[in-house]
Amino acid sequence: MLIIGIAGGTGSGKTTVVNKIIKSLPAGEVAVLPQDSYYKDSSHIPPEDRSKINFDEPAAIEWSLLVDQLAQLKEGKNIEMPTYSYLTCTRQEATVTVEPRDVVIVEGILVLNDPVLRNMMDVKVFVDADADDRLIRVIARDCVERGRTPMAVINRYQDVLKPMHSMYIEPSKRFADLIVPQGGNNIVAINLLTDYIEARLRKANREHQL
Q1: Could you list the pLDDT tens digit for every one of the 210 residues in the chain?
Q2: How far apart are CA 99 and CA 112, in angstroms?
């Protein structure tokens, strides 16, 4: 099993990179564990206070569960991945069954911050993008998917996203084996990454056949 960590700022193009990797490999070879699925449950917090939760700091993530489930996949076991609603800021009752695959991608803004998780990764990638481009994508996404107003998104960007990016996300770049500038638009870097993944898989298959 090849475990790949893909980090980068909010709106940097991580999902685009992940999707291009998945499309480049045979169907069913990749499982994805999004960091967002592992946000701590906030159902015990009054609804009016949930909007104040800082989702961009490591303390918001249940790292122990993510690490445990990744370890189970590595052992060849199925897992029940949690689901999280940004609309209610709560963990949902429904889970998603994830089966072990040749490639497991752990994706999220903070996935290179946790040392235990980081040490489980075979390849660590940081998707980089211009701050203005990221802000534009965040406004478009949050207004459509999370029901926020443009001004609310901009205020949150200034108050939370920007300082947390400087404090936690940008520094994690130093742990990356590969930095992808220009986000999901960098076809050359993505092709290099997918070629490397395919080469690793071919080598593993040959060793398995011996």
Answers
A1: 899 999 998 878 888 889 988 888 888 889 999 999 999 988 888 877 777 778 888 999 999 999 999 999 999 999 999 999 877 888 899 999 999 999 999 999 999 999 999 999 999 999 987 777 777 777 777 776 666 777 777 777 777 778 888 899 999 999 999 999 887 788 898 888 889 888 888 887 787 776
A2: 23
Structure tokens at 25: 């490999």
Closest CA to 172 of 6, 4, 3: 6
Nearest to 7 by CA among 27, 31, 29, 36: 36
Instruction: Give me the amino acid identity at 14.
Output: K
Amino acid of residue 162: K
Radius of gyration of the chain from its Cα atoms, rounded to whole angstroms: 17
Q: How far apart are CA 195 and CA 210, in angstroms?
A: 23
